[in-house]
Each structure stands twice: as C-alpha cells, then as structure tokens.
Amino acid sequence: MIEFYTCNKRLDRIEFNEKNILDAIKKKKKLWFDVIKPEKHEFMLLEKIFGLHPVTTEDCFTNNTRVKVEVFENNYLFSALYGIRWDHDIRFVEIDVVLGNNFLITCKTTKSKRLVDLGNNIEVIESLMKKGVDILFHHIIDMEIDNYFPVIDKLDEEAEKLDRQCFKDPTKDVLARLDNMKDKISHMKRTVFNQKDKLILLTKKETPFISRDARMYFRDVHDNSVRIADLVDGLKEELSGTLNTYMSLVSNKMNDIMRMLTIIATIMMPLTVVGSIYGMNFKYMPELQWKYGYFAVLGFMALLSALMLFYFKKKKWI
To answer: Do residues 147 and 82 touch, judged by C-beta distance below 8 A?
Structure first.
C-alpha cells in the first residue's frame, strides 16, 4: 500500500498512479510516498520514475538491512535506519528512506502507530512539507529515535528487578533471564552504535539533499542518538555487574556449603579414629572389660566434638 501526498500551496492526498505522479512532478510539487508492505509493481513504478538503483529496491523489500546512509550518483540519498517498539519485549522496526529533489519515499514492512498518526494529521504534514521534504524526513527519523528512550526506561526497570531478585534468590531462572536480556542489549547496542555513526553523515555540508536548516535539526537527532548509545552502554554494564553479582553470590553459597561439609568431615575424623581403635578385635584391651567403658568412650567423643565446635566458633569459621 502506498499513500501519496503532494504539497505546493496546500497538501493533497491523491491516488497513487503514474499519471498523478508525473503531473505533480511537472508542477514541481513536493512529494511524499508513504510505503507500507508495497506490491512489487507499485515500487517498480517509483524505481522507473525516480531512477532508483535496483540495489535500493532490493533493500526496500529486504528485512534486516544493515544500517546505512549513502548517496546514489547524486540522484538521491538512501538510508536504512531502525526504530524500536516495546510490546512486552524489544522489537526493531526497519525504516528505509529515499530522499531526492522534492520527493521523499518512506518504506516499512509493518505499520508504525506514530507514522499512521502523522499520516492522518494533514496539518502537520502540510506544515512540514512546505518547509521541505528533508524537514519531513527529519521529523520521521526524530520520532523513531525518540522511541528509544521509553524502551530503555522499560529495560532499566527490568534490570533493577533482576538485580533485586539476584540478591534475594539467585536461581537458575534468574541467570537465564539475565543472559536473555544481555543478548537483547548487545543487539540493541550494535544497532544504536552503527546508527549513531551513520546519522552524523546527515549533519555534514557535503551530504546532498539536506538543506542547511535541516542539518541543524539532524544535529539534534545525532545528539539524541549519542545519548541513547551512552544509555545502552550503561545498561549493558549494569547487567554485566548484576551477572557478576549473581556469580559471586552462587560462589559464596557454594563456599558456605563446602565449609559446612568440611567442618562436619573434620569433626567426624577423630571420632572415626576412636571408633576404629575400639573396633579392633584384639583379645587383650582393658577398656573392653570395663563396666562403664562404652559410656566413657561416648562421653569422650561428645566432649571432643564440643571442643572442636567451640574452637571453630572462636575462629569464626562457623
């Protein structure tokens, strides 16, 4: 589906077909094509009219395109950037954009609520397109970059919950959730760091199709992307710290168990020696004939155990 907007003195949403596109180009109107899950023949028409490279068309139809901002033979600028959503989990949304002289093509495989809301807000679109299609491009990218902040807040809340649970009860389930979140943050970090490096290209003078006024706005977008990268990096370090805490707590728990087993074994060792001595089958052992020998040995063993426990307690080993 392709929504087709034209703007000169006023904004019009018109039917997408070759005649209307060529007529709008002839009248030097500013054009915006909002593409959602396009049909092949529809996008081939855009490729034909605006001279899009087949690689650009392929990128627009391919999911998980690498983050990029590149210029094709000074005909147009192509960018593949990623927004983000939180739907009980992280979900990245690829947005491919073609920016040329007086035309903008935005292509995405899924509907974006913010872009749908923008598409329905004729006054905002008209105001932006009158300033230039590069300003509209900035507005769309700015909305998607801003989406990262509430998602990072959600992830930070999840990380704090895991941190508290780690101290309360460091189970294998907590470890699995930590590893899962760390993988997500690592993926997010790669995306935002690549995006940060590419967005700076939109602030440079030598980048065509971006006006001087728009470059100032893109600097703000780049600043936000740098801030997001710092937040994600900090979040990853926080998770690494929680993971280290988990390993330390599990190790301490294991050490406590081993210490207790060692104390039990140490106490039992001399008792085993005493029991072994009196378990020997020699004929002449005076204590065996003593009326109170059995109780004396038991008392001695109990006293020995008590003395060892007292010693361990004094040394603060238990």
So the answer is: no
Q: Same domain, yes or no, for 93 and 216? A: yes
What digits encode the pLDDT tens for the residues 187-196? 999 999 999 9
Residues linked to residue 33 through DSSP beta bridges, in sequence order: 4, 105
Query: Which CATH number do you get for residue 309?
Result: 1.20.58
3-state secondary structure of 130: helix
Count other Cβ atoms within 10 Å, centred on residue 265: 10
pLDDT band at 133 (very low <50, low <70, confident <90, very high): very high
Residues 6+ apart with CB under 8 A from 223: none
Distance CA 111, CA 93 (A): 9
> Quick check: 220 and 159 in contact, CB under 8 A?
no
Contact present, 11 and 126 (Cβ < 8 Å)? yes
**Structural domain range at position 297:** 253-314
Q: Does the pTM exceed 0.70?
A: yes
Number of residues that make up the chain: 318
